[in-house]
Amino acid sequence: MASTLKVNTIQGASNTATSIKTNGGTDALTIDTSGIVLLPQRPQFKVQRTSNTDMGSSAVNQKIVGFDDVSTSGTINVGGFWSTANQRATAPVTGMYHFEFHGYTLAGTTGQIGIGLYVNGTNTIGRDFRLNYDESGYTSVNFCSSMYLTANDYIEFYFIQQSGNGTLHPSSGQYYGGVAGYLIG
Q1: Could you give the strand order of the β-sheet that contains 37-38, starting from the edge strand earlier in sequence?
Q2: For the residues 121-150, what does the mean pLDDT come to?
């Protein structure tokens, strides 16, 4: 049975934070004394790699895997949003989501490369970016996209090489490569 609560003001007792809790008693929403709204149960992840790898050097469309570190300082995986078993994020609810990828190209990379965000195993409703390279040193590659997903849709990150000898280097460690995502609303 649904209920309707109509109020003009919600205020914490004695200038303390105000919380709305789940049925299990955890904070679902908190408003601190300065008015900042926190949603600690919002689906989100920031994962990184525990080992280095290189991908590419010939025309490829290759799933980027190895983002398996969800426990080091700086990583997060609220609600198991990211799966280290299948290297994908599955939308727990229908809504707008934001995703990011961070990595490097290797020295000597030339041609056209890109990062793709595939939805349900295909790029037909996903997003990607492409860029032309002729570099002699490591170059940072960053990609972000927001998209509307239906509950149980999943996303995967892909390395795309159209031409040249481009090599992607999704490094390990908290200061190098990684993927992230969160529910916007």
Answers
A1: 18-21, 27-31, 37-38
A2: 78
